[in-house]
Amino acid sequence: MRTVWxxxxxxxxxxxxxxxLIDAGADGxxxxxxxxxLGLDGYALAFERVQRCGVGATWxxxxxxxxxxxxHVAPQAEPGAPHQPHRxxxxxxxxxxxxxxxxxxxxxxxxxxxxLAAVEGRIHDVDPGDVELxxxxxxxxxxxxxxxxxxLESLGVDDVRCSPxxxxxxxxxxxxxxxxxxxxxxxxxxxxxxxxILGLDTELEVTTPTGAALMTAIASGxxxxxxxxxxAVGYGAGTxxxxxxxxxxxxxxxxxxxxxxxxxGDGAAVVLVEVNVDDVTGEVLAHTVGRLLDxxxxxxxxxxxxxxxxxxxxIVSALCDPAIAPAVRRLLLRETGxxxxxxxxxxxxxxxxxxxxxxxxxxxxxxxxSEGRVKVEFDxxxxxxxxxxxxxxTVIEMAIGAVHAEDDPAETESARRRTGP
Length: 421
What we know:
alpha+beta, Alpha-Beta Plaits, 3 domains, five-stranded mixed β-sheet, four-stranded antiparallel β-sheet, 29% strand, disordered C terminus
């Protein structure tokens, strides 16, 4: 298994983590191409060699031009910085969901923004999806997050570990004005994850909310460098260059762990995370399943069981990539209030599928095609049925008929006889 350990004892920011992975050998062109899959305009991404207290490092420079002036823009902490708009967390996650990204890059990036939305929502007393993301919702921060996830993918990293994380003191400037250092979102993320924290005597914001979200959402554990066969080491530079320490994040990439289980074949290794609960309402269980899917779980479900003393209870289960298992675990604990979860590694053989859209009496219906099966997106069919005032099963039959007609025009007439005009 390929593992990376981030040494964050001088702090961590999104651009520093991305630069450290580039310095360790991630393909910069592949990272840039992946970032381009977001479909964002008005930015430039470059990697430069710099020195920080005598340590050679890579600096990731994201230059952003002014975004659309009609959007609500945040006040800037630095005079002359380009204006970038606020974005609701839901909008950022929808952007990631629609982007042309590899699955593991997308799931890791979504987990990072889901963690940010959860803590920002709690701090501001609003729904996580509605919370306005200021600095962390700007183009440069989105590029940092996706860039880190793309660099991990370029290096083939399966597991992320992290050292204790340094934070500063005093106050910092943010969109809401003067804030304590570390920022409220930063300390909330670190606290929720149980991450070890190291205080530095500096008023620099050495760990940003983006950096904290990356480490806490995708790292499976915190502590010293794990036993590994080291393959590469990289250093990612921060913009500041204090005289008393090297302002860098160190990334050590190596091989760890045991080989895949015998008989696994070419199945993809995934993690099944579960919790037993006997004091949670049905509404909370349904909400939890939805949130698990939001953070990138492949599937999530609830199974009724009977626990000790004959109490009715439920198992809440989530199937996810190992990369986001830490985020899934924390979400299960937070939403259900359980005192613990369990996890097992299993193998998954997903069927190849194709997404397509067909027209049913002027309504666009999504369909999922796999070998020998056509599955109609039920929500699309239900909405069309309501508009057309016909049974939903009829819409489903018509959509299936439309697929067969597209694949084999000779089927058109028989499809019409089955479903009507």
